[in-house]
Amino acid sequence: MSSGGDSPFTLDPESPDWGNEDVMIEFIANSIPDFFFGLFAFVVAVLIVLKWGIKPVVSAIDAREARIASQIEQAEANNRRSAELQAELDRQLAGAEAKIAEMIRRAEAEGNEHKNRIVEAGRAEADRLRVRALRDIDTARHGAVVALREEVAVIATQVAEAVIRRNLDAQLQQELVQTAVTAYEEDVFGVQA
């Protein structure tokens, strides 16, 4: 569609042939085959696109939608499963915490019981040792008293023998007893008067 004057079929409004009916009819008559050819080419192109272009695209889109739907469904299933596992783990953790608390309580009770047994055994041993020491002290005291009585008896016997042998007066008898007691104290206690 050039605007030059060499083509008989110009549709230029400034052209002298613009209002001429014969030129218009001839233009339309020559354009009809081009129109049908273009229409045919368009229809064939549309059919080719529909046959080989749209179907693969649509099937690819459908396959992608199906894959996405499957992935979404799988993700939701995984999410539900994760929530169930989380609930199970929380339940197990709570159970484990309860078991640990019970074990700690039992260990503390056993520790306190063991401590009490040890303290009680220590007290019993201390009481036993105290009773034994008191018994040993009483035995030693009794032995000392018996020994002292025996010594006093020996001294008294010696003094009586001396008094009988000498037939002493009271002053001399007093000195003799004092000498015997002093000798005994030196002998037993190592003390000199």
Folded structure, characterized:
It contains 2 helices and no strands. The protein is an all-alpha fold. It has one domain (21-189). The chain starts with 20 loop residues before the first helix and ends with a helix. Mean pLDDT is 82; it is low at 1-5.
Largest β sheet strand count, sense and barrel closure: none
What portion of the residues fall into strands of 2 or more residues? under 5%
Helix content: over 70%
What is the terminal-to-terminal distance? 166 Å
Shape: rod-shaped
Number of helices: 2
Indicate the mean pLDDT: 82
Question: Helix/strand-derived class?
Answer: mainly alpha
Number of strands: 0
Poorly predicted parts: 1-5
The tally of structural domains comes to: 1
How are helices and strands ordered from N to C? HH
Rg, nearest Å: 69 Å
Summarize the structure.
The chain has 193 residues and is mainly α.
Which features characterize this protein?
single chain; 193 residues; mainly alpha; 0% strand; rod-shaped
Question: What order do the helices and strands come in, and which of them pair?
Answer:
Elements (H helix, E strand, L loop, with lengths): L20 H146 L3 H20 L4
